[in-house]
Amino acid sequence: MSSAPNPSSPNRPIAVLCLASYYKGSEFIRECHRQGCRTLLLTSHSLKDEAWPRESIDEIFYMPDVQKEWKLEDAILGVSFMARTEMIDRIVALDDFDVEKAAALREHLRVPGMGDTTARYFRDKLAMRARARDEGLPVPEFIHVLNHSQLRQFMERVPPPWVLKPRSMAGSMGIKKIHSSDDFWAALEKLGDQQSFYLLEQYVPGDIYHVDGIFYEHKLLFAIASRYGRPPMDVSHEGDIFTTRTLPLGSAEAKPLIELNKKVMKAFGMLRGVSHSEFIQGRDGKLYFLETSARVGGAHIVDLVETATGINLWAEWAKLEIAGGKAPYKPPAPRKDCAGLLVSLAKQEQPDTSAYNDPEIVWRMNEKKHHVGLIVKSPDPKRVQELLESYVVRMRQDFLAWQPPLERPNF
Q1: What digits encode the pLDDT tens for the residues 299-326?
Q2: N or C: which end of the chain has fewer CB within 10 A?
Q3: 141-202 belongs to which CATH class?
Q4: What is the pLDDT of residue 8?
Q5: CATH fold of 206-398, please?
Q6: Whole-angstrom distance, CA of residue 198 vs CA of residue 168
Q7: What's the pLDDT tens digit per position in 261-291?
Q8: CATH 3.40.50.20 region(s) of the chain?
Q9: 5-113 has CATH 3.90.1170.30 classification
């Protein structure tokens, strides 16, 4: 196998440092190895026994867990010490919680890639909304939880319910739906000195979509739009089956979502990488930007996209990071199937899905205890929707379990 050339030193393979606070990104790591890179992994000591693709990793370095998190200063000192003996050409965050660490490390080591300012648009929910609004993109009304007088004016002007959101968590962690000003002030009291790390946003009812894309040198090279069943926040907070289904490539429903996502990525300065963005179509029929991230989608969305298109976003992300703007990159031509995903907590430790036996089922979740999941595929989007709707009803009876969303990540 030939090594991926390093433009600054043709005789040395490119060295890619992967940051992972969660166990994920195995296919990214494998693709780096397939491309001939020297592949390094920095992860938490508590994850040392996970099934990392060790055959594709040249060196693993462990960070001590401090309340299940890494301190940025410790990460900078640790990676700087590593750099005494390791030449590092790329630094990639495999999880949302590592995006800002990766950016700070790139700045400190002067490694090319997304820096601190741009990374903030993909992690800080307040920064991303402010940037989108400044660029004229449609967003729900929002306000920084900072000045109490301005907060009172906001709640008088914008009718409830509202959503109280942490600026830098992922998914539904720490999010609270607020129904009155009394509820809001009570929630704020509990936050204490952490109030400024939150924003308050208008709750817009409607259908939630996500767009998953690949960008290289500011150009959109691939995108697929999908539609959630129930809003993910409602699923997390009330308990239900998480579902999403891809929209046919080029469909009338998908096109405006992809166009709006292109505008968001341009406004946020996405140079190269993958993105997962969420939008809502309000009851007024208007599309609003909710949030984005510089990573693949979680909850097995990457498997959904690969099922529908044949494109593995982890692998393609690795390829374009290695190309680094110095070499041409083009993703494979996508297939045009449709796919649907269902995922849920399960009351059984090892759920048995053998009774779900339609030929359209192409994937079953087997690796996580107390979890159940299926992916279905068909060239007919109506068949995918039909299967999802029927399986949701059955899974509620057969498997569904629920626990409140975490306030903070459980690494």
Answers
A1: 999 999 999 999 999 999 999 999 999 9
A2: N
A3: alpha beta
A4: 52
A5: D-amino Acid Aminotransferase; Chain A, domain 1 (3.30.470)
A6: 9
A7: 999 999 999 999 999 999 999 999 999 999 9
A8: 5-113
A9: no
Tokens for 357, please give them: 């036996």
